[in-house]
Amino acid sequence: LTGSVQVGVVVASCMGQHRNSFEYSVSVHDHLVVCAAEPDLNPCKPSKSLEAVTEQRRKYEFPYFCTDPGTGRMLTRNVAVTVESHGERKYNAIIVGLTRGKRDDDVWEVRFVSDGSHLSSVHKSQLHPIIEHKVRCKSVSPESIIETVEEHHHLETGAKVVYKETGKQVIAGLVQNTAYFISYASSNCFRLHATQADADAASAPLQVQGGSPKSLFVHTGVVDSSPFVDAADMEWFLDRKVKAQIDTLMPMHLRFQEALQVLQKPRGPAPPIRCPPNAEDSEGFAANPTPPRDLRLDAQFAEKWGKFLGQVRFAPTFQCGPEFPAANRWTTAVDAAEGLYFCAALPTYAGLVCLGSFYDQPEFVKPEEIGLVGVAMYQDGKLVARNERPPLMKDAVRDLQHEACLFVPGCVATYEIDHKYVGAVFCLAPQEDDYEIADDMPLIEAYHQLLRQPGVDSFELEIDLVLSTSFVYHTRVVCSGVVKVTCTDRGKALALERWKDCLKNRVNSRDALFPKRPRKHLSFSPHP
């Protein structure tokens, strides 16, 4: 709610987003047209107080609008829409209204004119005014070459123009309000063709004659298609870091150093990161401007993950986390002899958590990328560093066009994920009857090494979840949790027997190889 009152004249209407409702275009002044839902309009009545009117108003401002050149009045809600995957192409579309359920007033829904398809979550920066570029006919040569009044018509071969006649001397061979395609002849001359293919090939020019300076050719630059029909630009499929030659700009060993620097300090008892839709998260990182459609923050997502998001919580049993919603066996202190598991979840889907920025553009785990989740371990605030210089992915330059690594440097274990990943349950010390441990062996080994340290009666164990990609260009710690571990002599002895049993009997057992619990894709395993 803006809290402001706009006074204007209703100039157009259309069906609203909700059933049995209308939306109205209200001209406030020559340079501002707003879109208002039916309940938000009230006749101007002097008897009504300003406060009463304000409480009933909800303002929708059109980012851009088309106007009649003669009167300045709004004619349509047509806009030119750009989509990142389709480069600089601008598509002819109509604004439907604000995207339903979005908090950001700069996020819109549009309908493409060509096929009626809808696209929601269109940011204001993707909407552009449809500017009509007009050139006037000066003369037509016997070769059907049209000379323009303007010294430079600024039209390229293949450009679509619409012929409009405002005078009495029409151009023979052309039809009013019909689209044609030009082939460039000179800065102030061009030929017309019936199809873009003919224009591109400079073949089959139309035979025309006549015309006057009141014969107009209007070019808008918009494409009468939709991004659902057109193929995406091949250039878009290349990551912007690949296009910037990231391996030269920042070699992998420097990325390793930066990642290790990030992990030196534990996250500690920081509050969970909150990621509201279409807004910066609670740490000031940007929202994904084009969130993938399969990342739905609906009731089902909230029911499964709501109470775990952005947290690391410990339990003495694997029966915890979203697979066991009724279980409530969380703990903040354990003995070395006890089983120990933790449920860790990102603040939201991995594809919606901002990793950082590259050339001022926010970076996320993309659907086509290899995402990484690393588990960083701290003993009394000191990093238990592992794999500080992990191996590079074989043939990555050939297959991915950049150097890649499937391990987050400094982390005890790393798991490959996709953009839909949220979280999982991990094991540090398996229960006596738990054999499904293959995916957690690096964690189990590191934890039992801490338990075997001489002269240590207890310590504080912190687990941080680290998000990155195979580029290892950004490394962001996204959640953390702490548990107090007591190391009695009996507990240490039982823990040692448990570790030996893991190596001898459990890691290669049938349950380990074919577990019933959800698998995790361990990207690197340092255990023997």
Question: Gist?
Answer:
The chain contains 10 helices and 31 strands. With 528 residues, the protein is α+β, with helices and mostly antiparallel strands.
Question: If you had to describe this structure to a student in words, what would you say it looks like?
Answer:
- This protein is of the alpha+beta class and 528 residues long.
- Helices cover 15% and strands 31% of the residues.
- It has 10 helices and 31 strands.
- The strands form 8 sheets. Strands 7, 8, 9, 10, 11 and 20 form a 6-stranded mixed beta sheet that branches. Strands 12-13-17-16-14-19 form a 6-stranded antiparallel β-barrel. Strands 22, 26, 27, 28, 30 and 31 form a 6-stranded mixed beta sheet that branches.
- Strand 9 (107-112) and strand 10 form a beta hairpin.
- Helix 8 (441-451) runs antiparallel to helix 9 (489-506).
- It is elongated, with a radius of gyration of 31 Å.
- It starts with 8 loop residues before the first strand and ends in a 15-residue tail after the last helix.
- Mean pLDDT is 85; it is low at 46-61.
